Amino acid sequence: MDANIPDHSLNIHTVSAQIEQNPAFGPAQIRELTGTFVQKSIEVYSLTQYWHLHIGTHGEPARIDVVDGLSKMTLDVIGLAGFDYNFNSLSPDGKENELNEAFNTIFGSGTNGASLLKFCRLLFSPLVAVNKARKIMRRIGMHLVRQKKDDILMNPGLNKHSGLGQRDLLTLLIKGNMDPNIPESQRLSDEVILARKSTFLVAGHETTSNAVAWALYALSIEHSMQTKLREECLTLSTDDPSMDELTKLPYLEAVVRETLRLHPPLNNTSREATNDDIIPLSKPYIDVRGNVHDHVKIDKGTMIQIPILAVNRSKVIWGEDALEFRPERWDNVPEAAQKVPGTWGNMMTFLGGPRACIGYRFSLVEMKALIFTLIRAFEFELAVPQEDVVRQNAAVQRPILRNAMDKGSQLPMLVRPYQKT
Ligand code: HEM
Q: What is the pTM of this model?
């Protein structure tokens, strides 16, 4: 079927096309960025340090909302890896830079309030504070785009802000856009580049932080799995593993897969048929008149829901234990799952086809680096009864407490430093 996503102000098809031509998300680029993810999670103002500050000096467990720290962390990572910009969200003195403050004003009192939906609404909000924040984001964003262009023109080999060596996404996008082979009429304006940049910020930040939050949730319920994963991660003697080293940890891989199957950050999406079409069925059905059908007819303009969560959790596909968190299932993927047309991992989490997630490799490495670092440093236990944690669907699936819905997304845990016995 020839389908496409409906037009909206944040659609980023052109940027995807640019990235396909100039892939910032290929394995080689992601391999080079692994250092940023790992470094960010262990360096001075990092998440481990940030949580250690809450825990105090005596090593007792502290009650910590892990969503808050993870959200700040992934914002810092996408800022650095995506745009060569440091949001400094994890700064221990709580001082935010101007852009981070503006981002928080737009998305609520913490970055964990961000969502595509909220973002779209607030883009047009008449509130004075939001309007001011929007102007700040625009001014700084535009400055970054222009500064980046100047840097590229003046010094093609250098990236002075992060030392990433011009591997950040914005640089690749601008470089691709400056390619003399691209006709003038097809070049993106600075305004459009700025809009794409904002989309990446939102698409790449909350999805990953919530996925890691759900992984910690699952591991805090299944302690034996947490221990098994920690033991595997501790087999590496380095705090700073390469992407290849992370890829070779089979249980980490299985935990990430199982998290993304059972807790996909986006639970569904939709497409609109751009032409009349016919979808063949793997199993024919019989209608009320007794007629057998082996296809479904789709009219142009029909909206089609893609039920990501339902496919990922289908008992027909995954078996009777489909609703259980069981990383071991990845040792033996059921035949039915092998036919799921997802772009990665026999699941629909990143969708499939030409409009699938283009950041999935980025996200997988980031998730692994984060979980690797955190599970080696800390032990996690849910600070509330398991049944109090429910899923809130606000563009992204977030954990929220049944009896504190008004407080927004949170996942309180008792976090204690891991001490080798
Ligand atoms: C666990 C993390 C992630 C999940 C589950 C996820 C999932 C998805 C899904 C389901 C879509 C398709 C949405 C639709 O068309 O309705 C999508 C699109 C997209 N994602 Fe991700 N994503 C994740 C992380 C990331 C990251 C880290 C980035 C960027 C660094 C990113 C960038 C994008 C972009 C740019 C698109 C739009 C692609 C297009 O329309 O051509 N995503 N993502």
A: 0.84
